[in-house]
Design brief:
The protein is of the alpha/beta class and 412 residues long. The protein has helices at residues 6-16, 49-52, 61-73, 84-97, 115-130, 149-153, 158-161, 178-184, 208-221, 297-312, 315-331, 356-365, 388-391, 394-411; strands at 28-32, 35-38, 43-46, 108-112, 136-140, 171-174, 189-194, 197-198, 204-205, 224-228, 258-261, 272-276, 338-344, 347-352, 368-369, 371-374, 377-380. The protein has 2 domains: 6-59 and 314-411, Aspartate Aminotransferase, domain 1 (Alpha-Beta Complex), CATH 3.90.1150.10; 74-312, 3-Layer(aba) Sandwich (Aspartate Aminotransferase, domain 2), CATH 3.40.640. The chain has 14 helices and 17 strands. The chain has a 7-stranded mixed sheet, with helices on both faces. Strands 1-2-3-15 form a 4-stranded mixed sheet. A 4-stranded antiparallel sheet has the order 13-14-17-16. The radius of gyration is 21 Å and the shape is globular. It binds pyridoxal-5'-phosphate. Pyridoxal-5'-phosphate (PLP) binds at residues 114-116, 119, 144-146, 195, 199-200, 228, 230-231, 262-263.
Length: 412
């Protein structure tokens, strides 16, 4: 079966897989470093990294070794039992969150299989802490928190939500402005969910004054501040966590109560985490939450290896440096083609002066994988191992693709 052609695989895909993702752009075979190959043998530079997930690129030898060795020893045990990889993974996650010092007393990790489940866990923490007196939960316009029904209730896009109404009640969307926050706030608010940078919305950072106001209000009324770092965490933004950049008016770090992680935390292995910081680590008690697979030994080995490799190879610094240089190169492109470049580290949003999905197709035909988050916005989130030699062709390729698509559409 593996020698079948691209067309054959597409036909089989259409006949067997539920049509939730539309037709696949490519049928992929294998990868190495920042490159991935399709089943016809064509090579692509992956500037999307499995959507901010393949932080170590493809087939990183140390991650392959760690996961393979664990698979041969113990994959799964059920949560009646503990395993050393699960415990090592929790220690690593806590160390990444508190890379600058000690974790607050009480900080605890719950492992899941995905980002949406990490947010479901955070929702249960918020609800249980809030009780019936504080039924309201705030989320932001343009927010994306996942596709299961609780996380979907926190997700802004109407077409994602509408077919599944009624969703969980009590959630309200506000613009990320201090005035909207103050207008919505009350003692009946149990918590607020914030992506430090909204990735699915086209890489849009939430303003520092909004974060500071959200922290001040949640602290004053005893509500919980949840940072969804599923996309922005694990070195992506040139810091271990994007919220490490949060500061109050006095310049003191702002620490959320709950942080959710997934995507890059297992280097491509399906695993997520919900971290309760300080007292929030003790809100879920025996019997109030659970999972079969979450944090099993194999997932734990993937997390332990991924985070240790990021630390050993200084990939957080690399993300910051490569991101700065790549954004600078993108900003050198004619402003009538690229109208804005946003982002931190290796999470980059690019507004372009033509149809973004058509540019993504053009780039892919030229051997580069990127993604469109909207009609005129590209997103790049390449592996954190990327070097300048790897990405050097990208700015010119984007310029040429934007130019070509614009010429095609104006002459059509
Ligand atoms: C991807 C993403 C999720 C959902 O994660 P899944 O693993 O797809 O369930 C949630 N929040 C944010 C910010 C994301 O980027």
């Amino acid at each position: 079966m593996s020698s079948a052609s691209d067309a054959t695989w597409r036909e089989r895909y259409g006949e067997t897989l539920m049509n939730t993702f539309g037709s696949p752009q490519l049928v992929l075979s294998h990868g190495s470093g920042v490159y991935v190959w399709d089943v016809e043998g064509n090579r692509y530079l992956d500037m999307l990294g499995g959507i901010a997930t393949n932080c170590l690129g493809y087939a990183h030898p140390d991650l392959v070794e760690a996961v393979s060795a664990q698979a041969g020893r113990l994959m799964h045990a059920s949560n009646f039992f503990a395993t050393p990889p699960q415990i090592r993974a929790a220690m690593r996650v806590s160390a990444a969150l508190f890379s600058a010092g000690e974790a607050p007393e009480g900080t605890r990790v719950f492992f899941t299989n995905s980002g949406t489940e990490a947010n479901e866990t955070a929702l249960k923490i918020v609800r249980k802490h809030a009780g019936p007196q504080r039924p309201r939960i705030l989320a932001l316009t343009h927010a994306f928190h996942g596709r299961t029904t609780g996380a979907l209730a926190l997700t802004w896009k109407e077409p994602y939500r509408a077919p599944f109404a009624p969703l969980m009640p009590g959630i309200e969307f506000i613009e990320p402005t201090v005035s909207a926050l103050e207008a919505a706030w009350g003692d009946d608010v149990g918590g607020i969910f914030i992506e430090p940078i909204q990735g699915e919305a086209g890489v849009r950072a939430i303003d520092a004054d909004f974060i500071a106001a959200a922290r001040a209000l949640t602290t004053r009324t005893g509500a919980l501040l949840v940072a969804d770092e599923v996309q922005t965490g694990i070195g992506r933004t040139g810091r271990w966590m994007a919220h490490h950049a949060w500061r109050d008016a006095d310049g003191k770090p702002i620490v959320p109560d709950v942080v959710t992680l997934a995507k890059a935390v297992g280097g491509g292995f399906p695993v997520g985490a919900c971290v309760g910081i300080g007292p929030a680590g003790a809100i879920l008690t025996p019997g109030t939450h659970g999972t079969t697979f979450g944090g099993n030994a194999l997932a734990g080995a993937a997390v332990d290896a991924t985070l240790s490799i990021i630390e050993r190879d200084r990939l957080v610094d690399n993300a910051r440096i490569q991101g700065e240089n790549l954004r600078r190169a993108l900003r050198d492109i004619e402003p009538d083609l690229i109208t804005e470049v946003r982002g931190e580290g290796l999470l980059i949003g690019i507004d372009i002066a033509t149809d973004a999905p058509a540019v993504v197709t053009k780039l892919r035909e030229g051997g580069i994988i990127a993604n469109a988050t909207g009609p005129a916005t590209l997103r790049l989130a390449p592996p954190l191992i990327i070097t300048e030699d790897d990405w050097r062709p990208v700015p010119a390729a984007i310029r040429d693709a934007v130019h070509a698509v614009r010429t095609d559409t104006t002459s059509a």
